[in-house]
Amino acid sequence: MNSYTRIMQAIELKPETIPAAPQVLAWAARIARVPVRRYVTEAEAMVESLLTSYWRFQYDLLLVGADNSVEAEALGATLEYPEDDYPYVIGRLGFNDLASLHLPEPTKAGRIPVILKACALLRQQVKNQVPVVGKVTGPMTIAGQLLGLEQLLYLIIDAPAKFQEILAFTARVSTLQGQALLAAGAHGLVLIEPAGSPVVLPAAAFHSYLVPLLDSIFSAYAAAGACIRWLQITGPVGKILPYLQEIPVNLVGLDYVVSPLEAMQLLPGICFIGNVKPYLFVSGPEEKIREEVQALTQLPGQQLILSSGCELPLDARPEYVTAFMAAKRQ
User: Fold this and answer.
1) Residue 47: how many CA atoms within 13 Å on its side-chain side?
2) What are the b/e assignments for 19-45, b being 16+ CB within 10 Å?
3) In principle, which of 55, 107, 246, 255 could form an S-S bond with 309, CB 3.0–4.6 Å?
4) Where are the domains of the chain?
5) pTM above 0.70?
6) How do residues 162-200 score in pLDDT, each as one tens digit?
7) Domain 3-329 is in which class?
């Protein structure tokens, strides 16, 4: 059985074995000894890094993507590029700039073409042996990158119609980005929405503003053929999990602060991915990683793909990823 089959069986809640898929993006550049700056700006460097890491650790899913500022940069935000770390926004847009914004053309705007090319190259390499999942930034996070999260949140009280208008626009950006990745060869998509976490956005606002947009986004992904439709929101998401029944996702990320048993009760019939503490991949020890993996594999319900609670930190240590994969095989 290959990795693609393992992942799809898990998503369909009919696993013969539990897959393991730590969330590897730019950490792969450290394994390949490629500067992160090259990873996020050159398709060939991204592919070299992701494949080097994949062949070394033999996990069951390949993510393709970069930082959470890709879409914001394509819309006009200015970024700083460290040599060996993720870029970050240093120049945001003002409210007056929003009226002149146009939807980015994925094949031309910013670094989006780099990621599309990397996606196509990865799919050519692995074909249907392992699922290739393209990373998309969610609408709330894109808007926060563009305007600043604090300024964006003020709008919920001061100008809710404007808040809704901005999110409707950035949701269209997320939709187009995902559709372009699918056209480039991705089997599925993960939408990363850290700014949708209850620690940022109250659960009631999440339901009122974000759920209808996420429904539209993931419906478009499904119509475009995405067999993996994964929503990743970090933090204590228990309050919003029941709302995800209104969105056509088939995979939900679980951060380490969420009880998998509680999540399975709140959202039955959905496969989850998580939720080993990401910092354990930095600090260890190996025994603690083994304990967490073994506890997850013993959960009832067969609703889980083993993973880190979110993306692997850039300073994660290879021996702890090895320990994670070995614990899964025991």
Assistant:
1) 16
2) bbbbbbbbbbbbbbebbbbbbbebbeb
3) 255
4) 3-329
5) yes
6) 999 999 999 999 999 999 999 999 999 999 999 999 999
7) alpha beta
